[in-house]
Amino acid sequence: MKKTAATVQLEAVRKEYDGGVVAVHGVDLTVQAGELVVLVGPSGCGKSTTLRMVAGLETITSGRLSIGGRVVNDVPPSERDIAMVFQSYALYPHMTVRENMGFALRLRKRPAREIETQVNEAAETLGLTQYLDRQPRQLSGGQRQRVAIGRAIVREPSVFLFDEPLSNLDAALRGEMRRELAELHSRLGATMLYVTHDQIEAMTLGDRIVVMHQGRVRQVDTPELVYQRPADTFVAGFLGSPPMNLMPGVLVGDGERTLVRPDAAPSLAIAAPSLNVLERLPQSGAVVLGVRPEHLRTSASDGTSADGFDAIVELAEALGHEQLLHLRVEGVPLTVRGAPGVRPAVGSHVKVHADPAHVHLFDAASGVSLRRAD
Ligand SMILES: Nc1ncnc2c1ncn2[C@@H]1O[C@H](COP(=O)(O)OP(=O)(O)O)[C@@H](O)[C@H]1O
Ligand SMILES: [Mg+2]
């Protein structure tokens, strides 16, 4: 599109609803021009409230919101140069696709020919050309959502806002629409702020991901970094399926190495990451140990490997491309992801090994990662 994309900047943006519910505790975030940033987190964490404050659909209790360098706290939605796409599509039921898509331009009294060109172009982009004369009820859910997206595109906003746009679609269609949105973003080069509770959408769509929890931002990073270096135990447990194994424990030394010993399994010790990657150690030595299922491996229990600890197989799930082993080590549950193969029998013994380079340590009191930022 010809229009330049705008930056969106939130500075300590806070929302307290009537009755004292603090939905958003103060968000600091800068979305660069042309960037697609995904807000992700569990239901009720404040994603929609944050997005709706950017849209101007909710007042901002305190803090500052700028779009394209202009403070817009008190600017009405229609003057913010944004377009929003909702989960519910919000199409006009009595209008055709063509009329729905051109509506905002008609309101702006644009010339008929310009409206037609814009609508045709957007319809082409979204594969809607043959449906232009239909009404929304004559379309599938996926087509309706495309119309809602088309309606946003024709307005050429400097910022697109999406609130769970794919959540009403079935899994296969969600995957398809996700790829289309990614393509649309790179084609338009537009600034997009996208809300979802779906970690796959967040990981695949976002240039950067903002993980929210209980009205606070827990981490802002690229999808890779959010996954590889979760800032705290919440992020560690939220992204990844199955999630990271998390066990409270203490740091202990065995003379040469530093080990982490889970509380629940006094004889089990896992080599800790080398101390030079850690920012600090908690005074009490109390940590939470985190290892992703793919960073654990098993070997036969009669193996001679020195490190590695005994586990009992509780469940082996064959998923075709991989196998998930649910194990128990002295009462501690552990999930191990491995290549498909012979499924160990339930109740059998295996040895588990952790890759120390991929062991995460968090402060047991705060949940914050002990790893040094670099
Ligand atoms: N209009 C409102 N009045 C009072 N509380 C609200 C209102 N809208 C949302 N909330 C509360 O604010 C919190 C965040 O809600 P929301 O932003 O919708 O979360 P999300 O989109 O992440 O699911 C929730 O606890 C919710 O109950
Ligand atoms: Mg929401």
Task: Chart the SSEs and their pairings.
Blueprint: E1 8-16, E2 22-31, E3 36-40, H1 47-55, E4 62-67, E5 70-71, E6 82-86, H2 97-107, H3 112-126, H4 141-154, E7 159-163, H5 171-188, E8 191-196, H6 199-205, E9 208-213, E10 216-221, H7 223-228, H8 233-238, E11 245-253, E12 258-262, E13 270-271, E14 286-291, E15 296-300, E16 309-318, E17 323-329, E18 332-338, E19 349-354, E20 359-363
Parallel strand pairs: 3-8, 3-9, 6-7, 7-8
Antiparallel strand pairs: 1-2, 1-4, 4-5, 9-10, 11-12, 11-14, 12-13, 14-20, 15-19, 16-17, 16-19, 17-18
Helix pairs in contact: 2-3, 2-4, 3-4
Bound molecules: adenosine-5'-diphosphate and magnesium ion.
Magnesium ion binds at residues 47-48.
